[in-house]
Amino acid sequence: MPSNNANNTVNRYKPLLKPCWSKSPVLGSLFLLLLLSGCASTPNTFTPPSPVPLPASLLVECYAPAIPSTMTYGDSLILNEQLLSVLERCNHQIRGIRQLEAYRLSPEHVSISSLNKSR
Prior knowledge:
Radius of gyration: 35 Å
Low-confidence stretches: 110-115
Number of helices: 4
Largest sheet: none
Helix content: 55-70%
Shape: rod-shaped
Protein name: Peptidase
Order of helices and strands: HHHH
Structural class: mainly alpha
InterPro entries: LysC-like
Strand content: under 5%
Pfam family, one: LysC
Number of strands: 0
Mean pLDDT: 75
Organism: Pseudomonas chlororaphis
Oligomer: single chain
Signal peptide: 1-42
């Protein structure tokens, strides 16, 4: 059974269709065909989400401290501490980039806060 909306559409165009149908049934059929093509649905198009830009804090280069030509035992301990802090900062940046990539690749786009909780 046709829907009420379709009946309203046909009733609205009946006065226009009557003169066409009486003169030429082909012309009236073309008019009906145009009405049917207006009911056709358009295909759904999905656009991919825009990529998340990397924050500037994750793109800072990790510079190693300058190594002096002569060192004492105490100087080498200070240098080791500086080298370890640079290594830790670089590892933190890499971890942040991996989290952003995991966010980009996940179909549900898991929130970044939940990725931070999993550490």
